[in-house]
Amino acid sequence: MSSDREVWDHWYRKAQAQGYRSRAAFKLTDIDDKRKVIRKGDRVLDAGCAPGSWCEVALQRVGPEGAVVGIDLQTVEWREAPPNLRLIEGDFLQASAESLLEGIESRRRGPTRFDVVLSDMMAFTTGSQGTDHHASASIVERLLATLPALLREGGNLVYKIFEGERSPELLQKTRDCFEKAKPYKPAASRGDSVEIFVVGHGFIPEAAPAMPPEPKRGPPAPGPGWGR
Ligand SMILES: C[S@@+](CC[C@H](N)C(=O)[O-])C[C@H]1O[C@@H](n2cnc3c(N)ncnc32)[C@H](O)[C@@H]1O
Fold first, then answer.
1. pLDDT, mean of each 10-residue run, the chain (228 residues)
2. Single pTM value for the model
3. Ligand 1 atom closest to residue 54's alpha carbon, by position in its atom list
4. Residue nearest to atom 16 of ligand 1 (CA)
5. Which residue, among 202, 185, 155, has the nearest Cα to 30 in the 3D structure?
6. CATH number for the domain running over 26-207
7. pLDDT at position 192, please?
């Protein structure tokens, strides 16, 4: 295929033909086919799940014995959702671990946790590579710090990051708390996109990084009475 537009059209048509909600489905199928992240019976958390194609793929891969919890800032419409899918409308970065883990039963000894955490989260893109990278890096940094409460020891992780200056540091932080962590660019990810996925296998909870301080917000916008 010669242009990024043709590549986009190819995956879009393929998603329609196979009944997926978006072409993003093929990013996860590719990652999972190559890197073996999800197993039958797994409990999977899908952070930033709208419109829901990763949930569709995860449900196929975990089968009826597994469970999928999806959370997104946006509503995900799902007619006749299967009993092993739970959708939450909300901010993953503000959600409590208890609310995400509700209804999830552990098959192992120890605290109840997910077997796999997926994150395709990105609120919106500005078109500025630097701004988008820093927003994406901040999400990843916070995601890594939430893992001890969400992901079981030995569990797997997939996250998206928009590449930039902080990518090596975050890859290292991921390597520090996983037995193995490697970047992966799925075929369905546009060639001109700076997005890349990091796949971690074998979570080591005690090595996860601490939660960074809240990102700094600018001063409040001037209101009535300012400068009087
Ligand atoms: C690229 S889309 C995800 C596509 C999805 N993987 C699929 O296959 O359908 C990114 C999503 O991340 C969500 N998102 C970004 N920040 C979030 C947050 N803090 N909490 C929950 N969802 C978030 C956005 O609302 C958006 O729907």
1. 72 91 96 98 98 98 97 96 97 97 80 96 90 96 98 97 97 98 92 91 98 71 37
2. 0.93
3. 8
4. 123
5. 185
6. 3.40.50.150
7. 76
Domain regions of the chain by residue span: 26-207
Please tell me the predicted confidence (pLDDT) of residue 222. Answer: 45
Residues listed for the chain: 228
Does any ligand 1 atom lie closer than 6 A to the CB of residue 138? no
What is the per-residue pLDDT for 123? 81
**How far is 16 from 177, CA to CA, in rounded Å?**
38
Q: Is the CB of 71 under 6 A from ligand 1?
A: yes
Q: How far is residue 37's CA from residue 29's CA, in Å, rounded to a whole number?
A: 10
As to burial, measured by CB atoms within 10 angstroms (0-12 exposed, 13-18 middle, 19+ buried), residue 68 is buried
Q: Tokens for 225? A: 């009475």
Q: Which of 151, 174, 150, 148 is nearest to 161 (CA)?
A: 174
Could you give the CA distance from residue 104 to residue 206 in angstroms, rounded to a whole number?
A: 22
Active site residue 173: no
Nearest CA residue ID for atom 25, ligand 1: 73
Count CB atoms within 10 A of the CB of residue 22. Answer: 17
Ligand 1 atom closest to Cα of 94?
A: 19
- The answer to whether 48 and 92 are in contact (CB under 8 A) is yes
Q: How far is the CA of 92 from the centre of ligand 1 (A)?
A: 9
Rounded Cα distance, 30 and 14, in Å = 14
* Annotated catalytic residue within 40, 160, 185, 216: 160
